[in-house]
Amino acid sequence: MVKVLIATDKPFAAIAVKGIREVVEGAGFELALLEKYTAKQQLLDAVKDVDAIIIRSDIIDAEVLDAAKQLKIVVRAGAGYDNVDLEAATAHGVVVMNTPGQNSNAVAELVFGLLVYGVRNFFNGTSGTELKDRKLGILAYGNVGRNVARIAKGFGMDIYAYDAYTPAQVIENDGVKAVVSTEELFSTCQIVSLHIPATAETKNSINHALLSSMPKGAIVVNTARKEVVDEPSLEKIFEERPDFKYLSDIQPGIAAELAARYPDRYFSTPKKIGAQTAEANINAGIAAARQIVDFIQNGNQQFRVNK
Ligand SMILES: NC(=O)c1ccc[n+]([C@@H]2O[C@H](COP(=O)([O-])OP(=O)(O)OC[C@H]3O[C@@H](n4cnc5c(N)ncnc54)[C@H](O)[C@@H]3O)[C@@H](O)[C@H]2O)c1
Asked: How many CB atoms within 10 Å of residue 121?
């Protein structure tokens, strides 16, 4: 019988596990559960006889793949999949998928929670500003970026976006102004929200030149990945620009220093919470289960992310 393992250091909500179980058992497969494991060995033991694994931020590296002799597919319930060694998976003949779009509304709503908190001076009682009519730059018009644009319209913002791979027409069709480069986005928009994945191309790409080109009263919101921001540049811009604010869902390596030196301009959620909603949890978990069933029964590889 096909065996599917849910391996989650940070478990799904019980209702999500129930939904996954219904999909997996409904297909005639067996479901196993490994939650809150404290040692890698537990994961290595649990994967030995499974055909499929559903993970969240759990690390799937060559050692795990070596131990999983029957493994055919790993699905990351979520968007970012930098926790899976894609090359090793390909070398082991294992398909890797994510579940794009399932948590994007959750992340997009958090962007506006952070932004309102930021422009109202961290709710310190002083007079803040509004988001209406402000220029918002969306860096990467993927699933999260599109949801940010949709919500920004409700706030009455002036919306710009740049995406290296999405045609400008797709952006313009949503009533969003497409700019031609990351440089143009930063130099045009007082507020920039980051939605690029962490890739070789994007790591440390948000650098001093971009940050210093932003108009006065600059705010950068990062709900993407900490690696995309060049931290020495971030540190420098905080020193140089008293008008600069950084609002983040991912603590930078220099979080303690920024929090101590700039408590009224730096804020980060203590733990990444962008996708932490009941809805996102359930949607991503069930989507992962459906994708596994569809792959094993029909060979559907639509959401494959490794070559
Ligand atoms: N805070 C959280 O909990 C949380 C949750 C979900 C996603 N994320 C992060 O947000 C990122 C975006 O998620 P998504 O669901 O929108 O992903 P997505 O894959 O739907 O969209 C990513 C977009 O980035 C574009 N892109 C890739 N490289 C680029 C580059 N160099 N310059 C400009 N655009 C580029 C792609 O064309 C694509 O449109 C994820 O990769 C993940 O790192 C964080």
From this structure: 15
What would the pLDDT profile of 192-234 be if each residue is shown by its tens digit? 999 999 999 999 999 999 999 999 999 999 999 999 999 999 9
Q: Is residue 87 part of a domain?
A: yes
Å from CA of 26 to ligand 1 middle: 32
Residue 137 CB–ligand 1 contact under 6 Å: no
258: CATH: 3.40.50.720
Mapping DSSP to helix (H, G, I), strand (E, B) and coil, where does residue 129 land? coil
Main-chain dihedrals φ then ψ at residue 4, nearest 5 degrees: -115, 130
State the DSSP string of 188-256: H-SEEEE-----TTTTT-B-HHHHHTSPSS-EEEE-S-GGGB-HHHHHHHHHH-TT-EEEESS--TTHH
pTM across the whole model:
0.87
Token reading at 36: 């809150």
Would you call 44 exposed, middle or buried from its count of C-beta atoms within 10 A (0-12, 13-18, 19+)?
middle
Range of the domain at 42: 3-102+277-298
- Residue count of the chain: 307
Q: Is 123 in the pocket of ligand 1 (CB under 6 A)?
A: no
| Residue 300 exposed, middle or buried by CB count within 10 Å (0-12, 13-18, 19+) | middle
